[in-house]
Amino acid sequence: MLNEAGFAGIEWVAETGFNSSPVTKGVLFRARKAPIFDMRRFEMQPKDVLSKYQEFFNGAYAEGMIDRKTKYLIALGASLAAGCDP
Asked: How far, in Å, CA of 86 to CA of 82, rounded?
């Protein structure tokens, strides 16, 4: 049954002592399953992460309806209200 679910390298480890019925026994298995989603495809280098954050930061603090200084003060107030250290 575990093979059908996609597990490999299945090994029986121990009985748990929890028997749900006279017919079944509680056991502990160790097995591996291939990841469904491969995160390695989406890994970013630190410089890429920093550049993406810098793009976000520059966009958020660009001049617009609210000037840059007011945006900084709003961010400071929000961080203090959230309990962050300034």
From this structure: 11
Q: How far is CA 4 from CA 33, 43, 46, 78, in A?
A: 11, 31, 39, 51
What CA–CA distance (Å, rounded) separates 31 from 42? 26
Task: For 40, list phi and psi in degrees, rounded to 5.
Answer: -60, -25
Is 12 part of a structural domain of the chain?
Answer: yes
The CA-CA-CA angle for residues 24, 25, 29, to 5°, reads 120
Q: How far apart are the C-alpha atoms of 21 and 82, rounded to whole Å?
A: 51
End-to-end CA distance of the chain: 55
The reported pTM is 0.40
Domain that holds residue 66: 43-81
Average pLDDT in the 39-64 region? 81
Q: Is residue 52 located within the same domain as residue 30?
A: no
